[in-house]
Write a structure and sequence with these properties.
Order of helices and strands: HHHEEEE
CATH class: Alpha Beta
Number of helices: 3
Strand content: 25-35%
Organism: Kistimonas scapharcae
CATH topology: Nuclear Transport Factor 2, Chain: A
CATH architecture: Roll
Protein name: DUF4864 domain-containing protein
Keywords: Signal
Length: 142
């Protein structure tokens, strides 16, 4: 049962939200750091809902995905123990329009890798994709 976590993939629809735009990398990283702090405190929904104004898909999709993740978290905690922090692993750019923030959420016995990919269009950054999984060895294959 090595890979008990199925990655949560959200990329998609072009329905833009009416959020205050994220103008730069500092704003994106600050947002994601706040999300990771909330997730580490057991406030998964509260943290992830901070991203909702910046997603490129309907809020209803975000809510459905969060409900699935909330069902998985008790199993994560049982298997890996309590959260003990997080680290920024890398910030990676693909051209001028995509940027990924990868974080390691640390637990007592293992870790999860969280990825947040932002897409720039019309001088603003929007969340295009987020996911997490427990495949930490993949960090060394890329």
């Amino acid at each position: 049962m090595r890979y008990i976590i199925s990655a949560v993939f959200l990329m998609f629809s072009l329905s833009l939200s009416a959020a205050e735009p994220l103008q730069n990398q500092k704003a994106m990283q600050s947002l994601v750091e706040t999300v990771m702090k909330d997730v580490g405190k057991g406030k998964l929904r509260e943290g992830m809902e901070r991203l909702t104004p910046y997603v490129l898909f309907p809020a209803s999709e975000m809510d459905a995905q969060l409900s699935q993740v909330e069902m998985q978290m008790p199993m994560v905690l049982q298997r890996y123990g309590k959260p003990v922090g997080f680290d920024l692993i890398k910030v990676e750019e693909a051209g001028n329009s995509l940027i990924q923030y990868a974080y390691l959420q640390k637990f007592e016995k293992h870790a999860l890798v969280w990825r947040f990919i932002f897409y720039q269009s019309n001088d603003q950054w929007m969340l295009n994709h987020w996911s997490f999984d427990d495949k930490v060895k993949m960090l060394f294959w890329y």
